[in-house]
């Protein structure tokens, strides 16, 4: 089975890179951008078994993210 795991900062966590990108957009004269969120994703293929969802959640929580400052969302591809 194939999954995509999206990872981004939790609300309230400062992301200097996203803020710099947003500021650059504003400096380009594109003033309509109100918010910009940067994230990353991981494509994972896992064997289809009865525990596949539990396994992908464990990988996401324990390896791919820092649960103190990041959220993740799993989407089946």
Summarize the SSE layout with pairings.
Blueprint: E1 2-9, H1 16-27, E2 39-45, H2 52-64, E3 70-76
Antiparallel strand pairs: 1-2, 1-3
Q: In words, what does this structure look like?
A:
The protein has 77 residues and is α+β, with helices and mostly antiparallel strands. It has a single domain, classed as Mth169, Chain: A (2-Layer Sandwich), CATH 3.30.1280.10. Helices cover 32% and strands 29% of the residues. The protein contains two helices and three strands. The chain has a three-stranded antiparallel beta sheet with strand order 2-1-3, with helices on one face. The longest helix is centred in the C-terminal third of the chain and has 13 residues, at 52-64. It is elongated. The mean pLDDT is 95.
CATH topology: Mth169, Chain: A
- CATH top level? Alpha Beta
Low-confidence blocks of residues: none
Question: What characterizes the major β-sheet?
Answer: 3 strands, antiparallel
Fraction of residues in H or I helices? 25-40%
The value of Rg in angstroms is 16 Å
Per CATH, which architecture? 2-Layer Sandwich
- Trace the largest sheet across and list its strands: 2-1-3
